[in-house]
Design a protein that fits this description.
Elements (H helix, E strand, L loop, with lengths): L2 E4 L5 H5 L1 H4 L5 H14 L1 H12 L10 H9 L3 H19 L6 E5 L2 E9 L2 E5 L8 H14 L3 E6 L9 H10 L3 E4 L2 H10 L9 E3 L4 H10 L4 E2 L7 E6 L5 H12 L6 E6 L2 H14 L6 H11 L1 E4 L3 H11 L3 E5 L3 H5 L7 E4 L5 H6 L25 E9 L1 H17 L3 H8 L5
Parallel strand pairs: 1-11, 4-5, 4-7, 5-6, 7-8, 9-10, 9-12, 10-11, 12-13
Antiparallel strand pairs: 2-3, 3-14
Helix pairs in contact: 3-4, 3-9, 3-10, 5-8, 6-7, 6-8, 7-8, 9-10, 11-12, 17-18
Length: 424
Amino acid sequence: MIRIVKDGENSREEIFGVEQTAKRDVSAIVKDILADVKARGDEALKEYTKRFDGADLTQLKVSLEEIQEGVSKVEPRFLEVLKKAAANIRAFHEKQKNAGFRMEENGKVIGQKVLPVDVAGLYVPGGTAAYPSTVLMDAIPAKIAGVPRVVMVTPPNKEGKINPVILAAAHVAGVDEIYKVGGAQAIAGLAFGTQSLPKTDKIVGPGNAFVAEAKKQVYGSVSIDMIAGPSEILVVADGFNRPKDIAADLLSQAEHDKMASAVLITDSEDFAKAVSEEIEKQIPTLERAEIARASIDDNGKIILTENLERAITVANAIAPEHLELCVEDPFRYLEQVKHAGSVFLGRYCPEALGDYFAGTNHTLPTSGTARFSSPLSVDDFVKKTQYIYYDKSALEEVCRDVEYFAKKEGLTAHAKSAVIRFEE
């Protein structure tokens, strides 16, 4: 049963529990896998795919025929829903595009170009559930950024097939290439390149502990989006919500993973008790009841605060991945929110809207990293290049200042490079 506690336990460790942040140390295993793939390429990828996924592959790349076959197996209605969701995601992320800038004055030109990376790698998990939404969320911003080659990796089933809904989402999102490989070995393939997989410039997407550790270790050879931890939701709610609505929202994250965290902050003790009772009613009705049960028992919590202003203060200290403000006039409190991955406003805005349909990105900072990082966006797939032009008169006007500054740092060659152009 979910615990109800009074305000005072405000650190992430106290609220989410030590267990939530505890991770199995897989660094040595991952290090060996990365080195093996780097050395042996496709041969290593096929061996790991047979060992971990049970699939004996002759070819890693998904053929056009396989994609078409997968799309044909998807229900027409689901294909339409995918297209609607994709349209919303495109509309939101189009607003994030940055064209750069150029400044000109008195013989000087300075500016900044915004350029896409050449190759983006998307990791899409397999295992206990298929997540076509992740395909849309990762691929569409990359395509909007102008990335010319978007490559996706995802583990196959024992027959060497990719889930049709994943293939359909990739088709709708415009993914250029798909490969049948998962786990740390897939990250290695994307980071170093193999005979089949291209070396990428950026790797994005969530995964298990092995995937997260692999991304961490290859960073520097390639850029990554973030190191994602277990999913988490924090709901700030007054006592005027329906308890069953808030219970359902908490369970929407609890069903993800036994390590997921679902926390409610409210100023009403009666409401807290009602939500707790409703959670107990709903858990047995879920397909993933065992997972939700473990998440709620181990990591769930309801915190009672004196008022909603204090609730927002606690929420900022937690810096949650998902923050729901289920209150009257939520925009009033939005201004007070300083740290959150994505904020859901009002009584009719469940977190699932952001997971699938509204258009905002669901690849979000976890484990308190919303204090300093952001949701996945178009910016993740671009790089910025500065440029400078000075004509002769413009340099002459400032060269003595440059010389003086350089000498203050003891760098006389720097100083000379500015003034030498005007010596006889």
